[in-house]
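Escalated from tier 1: nicotinamide-adenine-dinucleotide holo job.
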Amino acid sequence: MDKSRKRILVTGGAGFIGSNFILYWLKKYPNDKIINLDSLTYAGNLENLRLIERNLNYSFVKGNICDLDIVEKSMQGVDTVVHFAAESHVDRSIKKPSDFILTNVVGTQILLDAALRNDVKRFHHISTDEVYGSLELRDTNKFNERTNYNPRSPYSASKAGSDHLVKAYYETYGLPITISNCSNNFGPYQFPEKMIPLAITNVIEDKKVPVYGDGLYVRDWLYVEDHCRAIDLILQKGKVGETYCIGGLTDDINNLTVARKILKILGKDENMLEFVKDRPGHDRKYAIDWSKIKSELGWGPLHSFDEWLEKTVEWYRNNERWWKRLKTKEFQKYYEELYGDLD
Ligand code: NAD
Ligand code: TYD
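Tier 2 regenerated the structure:
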């Protein structure tokens, strides 16, 4: 076999970032092989991969990362694992933490064991800046690779648990790992439960945009393709055992501002905003310092927030069929439980 060709196991490749990553990778490295292991939860959608589903270098395995047999079979002959599979929505983690512990913690440990047994050359773990906790609005510090962990939601606690396991497998067994902790992504194929796609699709449907609490919560926003480029660089040039923080080009932008920008792009006024009950334990602010990946690997975001928010809105406008199917009865039930009878 040609050693320069990678054989990559992507977990969670039918989700938002995983599917963007597979499309990115096969376009840039058409000779590499990708195996996508995904259990197709509510968040997994094979339509995201329609463009490459017939590509001979792509294969799909429907399976759970907690299933030892399927994981073992999928890992055979693989040299690189890129681990995206997770329960990823904070609000759902508040309602049902157990799913998050199973997939994010137990599932990661099962993958790590299989990676060791199969002598995988790189296990890259996708994580989040949410493991570092919450900053005060007036705080000018940013999270970096040395920030202490302080997760505050069941989601971030489960991701923190998985990060610790990945590091432990490096220290204890010498598994060649890398980790990236990334800020909030946005872009095509994001499930319309997360803030940006929910706001865009609600406005297109002439429904109100729910704004939690006072709306002054701050997130760092990164266009999903910039995230994929960062993972690419870490796989090619990253140092084994290291963590890399990844963030976008936004400066302390709060949710109200993001929602107003979306309304402006879609030509709607502020009546479409509705302040709703706050999320319990809501992290006030995330800010991330990505100077390490910039200085060591030469990465920086290429996509500015305003420009790519417009393009993202355009994508949701042009792909109504994709997201309308996802706002199904089951989603309606989840939505009504969370937001009451918001129009
Ligand atoms: P997503 O919810 O859109 O997709 C998750 C995918 O994982 C789905 O396809 C789902 O079917 C699959 N999956 C879930 N449980 C599984 C299991 N037990 N076995 C196999 N497959 C399973 O998530 P996303 O937004 O694409 O996030 C991907 C990764 O990136 C996650 O690890 C998340 O923690 C991390 N992350 C996300 C963001 C963000 O803004 N979305 C930011 C930083 C880090
Ligand atoms: P979200 O997309 O759920 O990502 P995360 O909680 O992982 O950062 O939420 C982004 C921000 O937007 C967060 O502060 C919660 C807020 N939010 C709303 O104000 N309204 C909404 O309907 C949603 C889903 C989120």
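The chain has a mean pLDDT of 96.
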